């Protein structure tokens, strides 16, 4: 399997779960990227949270922290065989993007909601990099659990 | 999000005509052949479209314009940072290669090109279809392509899993510039406009 | 030498207009980036004419035009905008704009617009003496 075959891109408001040797990648602005990793079974997922709470009825549940995160955990444990006890999270993104939408700092609200839900679910946040005003480029290696993160205009840091 | 194929077809014609107008204005601004043509108008899936754009991790300079009036719309013009130097030189009537790095002039040139594109698109919609919309001051931003695109469609994504998206092919003669130009019309207001001009299919 | 105040939110456009006008025998009194700054600079610099963009942040060019004309009924303001729409044109003329040039413009068209103002001004003066 070459490098491009290993890579899986995640869209905004989407969830993808996979296992080693795959690498999940996405770009984040005001959205929060939540990765969950089971280091024993080498299963990992990436949820791209767009908004804190679901409002409409017909919309995709993975867009929202309050519906997407519980669904993500459920999928990890029941459908992919990840062990709930070994799961940990890493979170990225939540930047304050430029104001074209008249939306007041969604990034911060997204982060708060994600942190609260993870706490309630008893999942530890092993690493995080959030805030700022620029986009995040992240690569999540399901083999190691490492997240390679590059904030626009800065150098690469591995979390 | 529902729209009939017939209405989509009319929107395609409206988009083509307005993009033609913008294309001519751009050629005049740059004093070289600039050809923008419609490549696709579609009801796109929000997740799939942003996924595709998230594949593009290049560092871009972008200009986004909101339109105000009876018809709502957003425009995004973006290109790789190095490409913006060529556009700046063309715009300032300098020899290509004069601009060496992105600075306030590059940003300002891209801002003005966004303004010209948006204004001429709205001019065509107003004169040809009785639309009422006027561009707001353009906003310039540097970031990853996917992040910029997401910011364009975020508001739409909050109310729907689909979005009406107009994609174009953008060519500037004598260069190999790769530019993106997207339009995101607010669908309900455009459907009302079609009603008002008698397109009730 | 006639002094012109150049108003546009885009730095490059201010630079282009500055180059064209100075090449054609005008002096640049100053620059402004929106309608509010335009009025402040107008009061401070008392230019002979103003070039005024329309779509600008904070205070747009139509409002800038209104305020300058309210301050000085004789002010000569040429609108220079990519907006080529009847409403915008009519509103500008109604509020006292001397001319309206659509972007992108040919250098000659812009220079002619400024020259015409002063040609008209002279005619007016001649007329009032008679």
Automatic annotation (TrEMBL), chain B:
Q: Which Gene3D superfamilies match?
A: CheC-like (3.40.1550.10)
For whether the record's keyword set contains Ribosomal protein, the answer is no
Query: Which keywords accompany this UniProt record?
Result: Chemotaxis, Hydrolase
* GO biological process assignments: chemotaxis
What Pfam families does the entry give? CheC
Superkingdom is: Bacteria
Q: Which residues form the CheC-like protein domain?
A: 107-140
- Annotated Gene Ontology MF terms? hydrolase activity
Quote the protein name from its UniProt record: CheC-like protein domain-containing protein
The top of its lineage is: Bacteria, Pseudomonadati, Planctomycetota, Candidatus Brocadiia, Candidatus Brocadiales
UniProtKB/TrEMBL annotation, chain C:
Q: Which organism is it from?
A: Candidatus Brocadia sapporoensis
**Classification via Gene3D superfamilies:** 3.40.50.2300
Q: Does the keyword Phosphoprotein apply?
A: yes
Span of domain Response regulatory: 3-118
Pfam families tied to this protein: Response_reg
Q: Which InterPro entries match?
A: Bact_response_regulator (IPR050595), CheY-like_superfamily (IPR011006), Sig_transdc_resp-reg_receiver (IPR001789)
Residues with the 4-aspartylphosphate modification: 53
Q: PROSITE patterns of this UniProt entry?
A: RESPONSE_REGULATORY
Keywords in alphabetical order: Phosphoprotein
Q: What is this protein called?
A: Two-component system response regulator
Q: Which biological process terms from the Gene Ontology are attached to this UniProt entry?
A: phosphorelay signal transduction system
SMART domains under this entry?
REC
């Amino acid at each position: 399997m070459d490098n491009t075959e290993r890579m899986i891109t995640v869209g905004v408001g989407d969830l993808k779960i996979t296992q080693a040797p795959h690498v999940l990648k996405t770009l984040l602005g005001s959205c929060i990227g939540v990765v969950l990793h089971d280091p024993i079974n080498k299963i990992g997922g990436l949820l791209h949270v767009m908004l804190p709470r679901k409002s409409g009825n017909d919309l995709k549940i993975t867009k929202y922290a309050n519906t997407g995160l519980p669904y993500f955990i459920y999928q990890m444990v029941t459908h992919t065989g990840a062990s709930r006890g070994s799961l940990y999270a890493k979170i990225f993104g939540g930047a304050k993007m430029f104001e074209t939408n008249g939306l007041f700092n969604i990034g911060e609200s997204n982060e708060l909601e994600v942190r609260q839900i993870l706490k309630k679910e008893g999942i530890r946040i092993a690493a995080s990099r959030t805030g700022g005003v620029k986009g995040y480029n992240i690569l999540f290696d399901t083999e190691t659990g490492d997240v390679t993160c590059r904030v626009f205009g800065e150098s690469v840091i591995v979390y | 999000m529902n729209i009939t194929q017939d209405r989509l077809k009319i929107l395609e014609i409206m988009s083509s005509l307005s993009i033609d107008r913008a294309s001519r204005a751009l050629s005049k601004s740059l004093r070289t052949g600039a050809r923008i043509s419609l490549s696709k108008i579609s009801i796109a899936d929000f997740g799939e479209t942003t996924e595709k754009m998230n594949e593009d991790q290049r560092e871009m300079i972008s200009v986004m314009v909101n339109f105000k009036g009876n018809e709502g719309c957003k425009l995004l013009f973006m290109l790789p940072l190095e490409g913006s130097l060529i556009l700046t030189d063309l715009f300032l009537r300098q020899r290509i290669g004069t601009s060496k790095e992105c600075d306030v002039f590059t940003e300002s040139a891209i801002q003005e090109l966004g303004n010209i594109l948006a204004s001429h698109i709205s001019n065509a919609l107003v004169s040809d279809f009785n639309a009422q919309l006027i561009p707001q001051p353009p906003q310039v931003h540097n970031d990853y392509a996917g992040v910029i695109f997401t910011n364009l469609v975020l508001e739409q994504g909050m109310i729907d899993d689909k979005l009406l998206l107009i994609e174009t092919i953008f060519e500037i003669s004598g260069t190999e510039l790769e530019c993106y130009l997207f339009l995101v019309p607010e669908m309900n207001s455009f459907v009302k406009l079609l009603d008002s001009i008698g397109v009730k299919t | 030498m006639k002094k012109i105040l150049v108003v546009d939110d885009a730095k490059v456009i201010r630079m282009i207009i500055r180059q064209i006008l100075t090449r054609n025998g005008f002096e640049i009194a100053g620059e402004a980036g929106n309608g509010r700054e335009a009025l402040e600079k107008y009061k401070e610099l008392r230019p002979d004419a103003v070039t005024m963009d329309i779509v600008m942040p904070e205070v747009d060019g139509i409002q800038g035009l209104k305020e300058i004309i309210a301050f000085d009924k004789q002010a000569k303001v040429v609108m220079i905008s990519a907006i080529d729409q009847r409403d915008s044109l009519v509103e500008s003329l109604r509020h006292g704009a001397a001319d309206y040039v659509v972007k992108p413009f040919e250098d000659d068209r812009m220079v002619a617009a400024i020259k015409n103002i002063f040609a008209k001004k002279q005619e007016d003066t001649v007329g009032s003496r008679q």
